[in-house]
Amino acid sequence: MLSADFGAYSWKAWVSVIYLAVLPSAFAYTVWYRVIKVVPVSYVALSLFVQPILGTMIGYTFLDETIGIETVAGALLVCASLAWWQARSLRSQSGVQAATPPYPQT
Fold it and tell me: Is 32 a member of any domain?
């Protein structure tokens, strides 16, 4: 079990933790559900795989984090998987519904 003296943290630290737990989550869920009203979930879910890559690049750029060979290999694997999925989706749609976009137009 974790043991910590939570009373040692200032009120600013607690406000920061609550802010980071509530506001970004509410924003992210709001955006997520608005987007899946327009775009199929299978397309939107692919963006979840890109988030660790963007997080790594932001950490490298702003926090001077190091990027190891494992991170590069993982990013390449994610990118290759996304490219494969897109190519597969385009091939399956080209013969069936060439004139129909993959999501409803508004």
Answer: yes
